[in-house]
C-alpha cells in the first residue's frame, strides 16, 4: 500500500512542508509564519499532479499555528498528528524534563537516526540554532540553543543609532579585518556565527566522548547558508529535509500509514 503524507515543520519564522509518496519527496515548500495566520488549506487538497494527502504529520514549536493546522486538517477530513516526546518510537530520551523539548529537536534526532548510528550531533540553523546530542549510551541527551543568524545581525541594527542593516544577500567580507562599518559587521556576524557553532560542536563533542568513548558524527540542516557551508561546514554532510524526514519516520505508528522512509 502506498500513501501520500504531508509532513510539516512549524518553526518561528516559517513552516516548512514536504509531501512524500512512498519514500520520495514529491513536493516541498515554505509558508511564512510572521504576520497573518498561516493557511494550510492549499496543501490539504489535490494539487495537480499530486493527490490530496492521506494524512498529515507535523512537529511544531508554535502552538497557535499547530491549532490552525489541526483545524484545517479536520475540516478537510484528513487525519493530523503531532510529534511529542511521548511519540518518538525508536528514540530513547534521557533528559530531565522532556516536556520542555521543542518537537523540532526531537524530529531532528529521529532524522539523524535515519542517516547515522549514534553518537551523533544534529545542528539546525533556523530562527534559533539548535545542537542536539544523541549518544549510543543514552539516546537523546540534550544540547544547546543559540541565536540564529538573523537575530545576531538584526539586533545590532535595531539596538544602535549608527549601524546600518546588513544585507544578507550581499556579504563581501567574511574574514580578516573589516575596514568600514559594513565590513566590520560582516566579519563580526559571519565569522562570529561560524565560530559560535564551531565552539558549540567542540564542547558537545567533548562531552559525548566522555559518555560514549568515541567521537560523534555531525549532521547539519536548516538555513540556506551557503557561506557557512563554504567557510566552515564544507566537510560536514548537509541534509536539507532532515526535520521532515524525522517527522515522516513516525507516520506508520502515528497515522497507521506507511512512510516508506528508509530507517536504519
Ligand atoms: N543566506 C542566508 N545568509 C544569512 N542568513 C540567512 C540566509 N538565509 C536565511 N537567513 C536568516 O537566518 C535565519 C534562519 O534561516 P531560515 O530561513 O532557514 O530559518 P527558518 O527555517 O525559517 O527558521 P524556523 O525553522 O525556525 O522557522 C532566518 O531568520 C533568516 O533571516
Ligand atoms: C529552540 C527552538 C525555538 C528551535 O526551533 C524550538 O525547538 C523551541 O521552541 N524549543 C523549546 C525549548 C527547548 O527545546 O528546550
Ligand atoms: K527549524
UniProtKB/TrEMBL annotation:
Q: Does the keyword Repeat apply?
A: no
Q: Per the similarity annotation, which family is this?
A: Belongs to the type III pantothenate kinase family.
Question: Which GO terms of the cellular component aspect does the record hold?
Answer: cytoplasm
An individual GO BP term: coenzyme A biosynthetic process
**Top EC category:** transferase
> Which EC number(s) are documented for this chain?
2.7.1.33
Q: Which NCBIfam families match?
A: baf (TIGR00671)
The places in or outside the cell where this protein is found are: Cytoplasm
Query: Which pathway does the database say it acts in?
Result: Cofactor biosynthesis; coenzyme A biosynthesis; CoA from (R)-pantothenate: step 1/5
- Stored InterPro entries: ATPase_NBD, Type_III_PanK
Q: Which residues bind substrate?
A: 95, 102-105, 181
Oligomeric state and interaction partners are given as: Homodimer.
- Report which reactions are catalysed by this protein: (R)-pantothenate + ATP = (R)-4'-phosphopantothenate + ADP + H(+)
User: Key word ATP-binding present in the record?
Assistant: yes
- What name goes with this protein? Type III pantothenate kinase
**Record's function text:** Catalyzes the phosphorylation of pantothenate (Pan), the first step in CoA biosynthesis.
UniProt keywords, alphabetically = ATP-binding, Coenzyme A biosynthesis, Cytoplasm, Kinase, Metal-binding, Nucleotide-binding, Potassium, Transferase
Superkingdom, taxonomy of origin: Bacteria
Signal sequence interval, chain numbering: none
**Which cofactor(s) are needed, names only?**
K(+); NH4(+)
Q: Which residues form the active site?
A: 104 (proton acceptor)
Q: How is the cofactor bound?
A: A monovalent cation. Ammonium or potassium.
Amino acid at each position: 500500500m502506498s500513501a501520500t503524507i504531508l509532513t510539516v515543520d512549524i518553526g518561528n519564522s516559517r513552516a516548512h512542508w514536504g509531501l512524500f509518496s512512498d519514500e520520495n519527496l514529491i513536493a516541498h515548500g515554505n509558508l511564512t509564519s510572521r504576520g497573518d495566520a498561516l493557511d494550510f488549506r492549499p496543501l490539504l487538497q489535490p494539487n495537480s499532479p499530486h493527490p490530496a494527502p492521506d494524512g498529515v504529520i507535523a512537529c511544531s514549536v508554535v502552538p497557535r499555528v499547530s491549532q490552525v493546522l489541526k483545524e484545517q486538517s479536520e475540516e478537510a477530513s484528513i487525519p493530523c498528528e503531532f510529534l511529542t516526546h511521548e511519540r518518538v518510537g525508536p528514540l530513547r530520551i534521557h533528559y530531565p524534563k522532556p516536556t520542555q523539548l521543542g518537537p523540532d529537536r526531537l524530529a531532528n534526532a529521529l532524522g539523524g537516526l535515519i542517516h547515522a548510528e549514534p553518537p551523533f550531533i544534529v545542528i539546525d540553523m533556523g530562527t534559533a540554532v539548535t545542537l542536539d546530542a544523541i549518544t549510543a549510551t543514552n539516546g537523546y541527551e540534550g544540547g544547546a540553543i543559540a541565536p540564529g543568524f538573523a537575530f545576531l545581525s538584526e539586533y545590532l541594527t535595531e539596538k544602535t543609532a549608527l549601524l546600518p542593516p546588513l544585507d544578507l544577500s550581499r556579504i563581501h567580507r567574511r574574514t580578516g579585518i573589516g575596514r568600514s562599518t559594513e565590513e566590520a559587521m560582516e566579519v563580526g556576524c559571519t565569522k562570529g556565527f561560524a565560530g559560535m557553532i564551531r565552539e558549540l560542536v567542540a564542547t558537545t563533542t567533548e562531552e559525548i566522548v566522555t559518555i560514549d568513548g568515541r567521537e560523534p558524527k555531525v549532521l547539519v540542516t536548516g538555513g540556506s547558508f551557503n557561506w557557512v557551508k563554504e567557510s566552515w561546514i564544507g566537510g560536514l554532510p548537509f541534509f536539507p529535509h532532515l526535520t521532515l524526514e524525522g517527522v515522516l519516520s513516525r507516520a506508520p505508528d502515528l497515522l497507521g500509514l506507511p512512510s516508506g522512509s528508509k530507517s536504519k
